Amino acid sequence: CLRNGFRAVRDTAETYDGIGLRIDTNGGTVSNCVISGNQRHWRGRGAAGVYMNSKQAFLKNCIVRDNVGYFAGNASSDKQYGTGIYLAAGTVSDCFVMNNTADSQYAKGGGIYLGSSDAVVRRTIVSDNKLTYGPNKKTDSNVQGGGVYMVDGVLDNCLIYGNKLENTMHFQVHGGGLCQEAGSVVNCTIANNAAYGAAGVFV
Known about the structure:
Layout: E1 2-4, E2 7-9, E3 12-13, E4 21-23, E5 28-31, E6 34-36, E7 39-41, E8 50-60, E9 63-65, E10 68-70, E11 79-81, E12 85-93, E13 96-98, E14 101-103, E15 106-108, E16 112-114, E17 119-122, E18 125-127, E19 130-132, E20 142-144, E21 148-150, E22 154-156, E23 159-161, E24 164-166, E25 173-174, E26 178-180, E27 184-186, E28 189-191, E29 201-202
Parallel strand pairs: 1-5, 2-6, 3-7, 4-8, 5-8, 6-9, 7-10, 8-12, 9-13, 10-14, 11-15, 12-16, 12-17, 13-18, 14-19, 15-20, 16-21, 17-22, 18-23, 19-24, 20-25, 21-26, 22-27, 23-28, 26-29
């Protein structure tokens, strides 16, 4: 599958992953596209913008912006992971991931969530993404990685800039730019991010 130069905008769904674009186990290449203004709510993993789950999935020279994930409840199944891109497996290269927002008690990776050792992001700008829980909710939140959250994988030659965690209480609120469990971060610039704890990088 090869798709080039399309726009996926302003779609809304409740439980699906990848509202704007989904590249599943068969793989495929998407390039020179805009994935913008999609909304995802209710329960599941996340990815209002793009969901990728194949080592043969490639996203190249694309803009992923202004996507939103939210859930009004307080359940532990209220998870918004990878609001811009949920990268279970595959390669993202030469992309812009910006202005994606999640409002959730359990949110990780406002820009990109790397979910395995088969997740690779190269030469990509991740900027001005935001995770929030509130401002009026009183329950402690588990909100990490305003720009990028890494379970594993590779982040190579990327710029992570101006991302933030906002209106969150003090439980497990870390990594305004990057929150990293494992994996490799190579030749990346991480600057001007904001959070209650570990505004830049939390490992």
